[in-house]
Amino acid sequence: MLTGCYNLLPSNGGGQANPPAVRTVRPADIAVPAGYRVEAVATGLDFPTAVAFDEQGRVYVLEAGYSYGEVFTVPRLLRLEQGGGRMEIARGESSPWNGLDYANGAFYVGEGGGIGGGRIVKISPGGQVTPLVQNLPSLGDHHTNSPVVGRGGYVYFGQGTATNSSVVGTDNADYGWLKRFPQFDDIPCVDITLNGRNFQTGNPLTPAADTVVTGAYQPFGTPSRPGQVVKPSFQPPASPAVLRLRQRMV
Fold it and tell me: Domain residue spans in the chain?
């Protein structure tokens, strides 16, 4: 079990949590089937998101470098050493780092790219970071994530959506990205014909108490029209999507 620090958005009335200043790990609090036991392997990590093992059985942990609520730290790949020590293998400049796989002597990391677009990067045991693909549409709620190395030299990974409903709204401003990328929205994978349903909200991008109208698959503040056709994109690819790529450098 790996534990770390997390930052939560306010619940807006749904439920309240008052976490202690120091998190206590109590394996007995976790129910597992008979014959299994829970043991804390590492604590005090900073937004851990993934674990991988090399040929020698050594444990590697990915720290995201970001939490919803606009908390930015440093994304890192760490190796857990015997005796509780940690060795930094690599660190990134753009977060979050989501998902980790180890194959053929190298690490593969999904870089969410909350600032500059998503990437899949390959990291050598010595810490050299090589992008395999970049400029992915990973600027919104859900990011580039979870690379897995499969057969034939392919790397499979997920590409998340800008929003939860294909409509950019005030919740995306709460997450922070709408103010950084006001023209960003969801990208369909097939032609979408809109019925012109639009939604009026407050405008968090201006100091005045004005309102805007936004339609599906449109930038914030842009209404849609009945019968409007939204075309898919292949560069950047659609979101959401499960994608694959061959291991070649861009």
Answer: 2-161+235-246, 171-230
